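*Target chain*
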Amino acid sequence: MTPRRLEFTSIVPRPLSETWDFFSRPENLEKLTPKDVSFKISSPVQGVEMYEGMVIQYRVSPFPLFVTDWVTEITQIEHHKHFIDDQRVGPFALWHHQHHFRELPNGHTEMRDVLHYQAPLGILGTIADKLFVHRQVAGIFEAREDAIKRLFP
């Protein structure tokens, strides 16, 4: 399977510095992730701003009756511009997630995500991706959009 590329853009009605402060703290990931994914951070990240080389461990249930560990590493950061997380251990054969931030003239922030992912298990993963993985991944970002509206009224 060729990796999938997805892009999502959100407008956060806050200045860039405030938006960056929120999104650069791993502890806030749970606030942005849908409840049905059962996303729980197991690393001690409370009050820690992410940094290059930071490894974050999670427990996640991306699909009913399937619970797995997920480990990502923050591989690149340019403060107030972007950061990248790459899966080291987890449910995907590939997970490369770029988060880009840009201040808008009205004082809001544009946040653009570029995600490259690939389901595991070769042809079985390709079939699973077509049947439900792609929809599940896109749903996480759609739910995050709702969370942004709720957290930043």
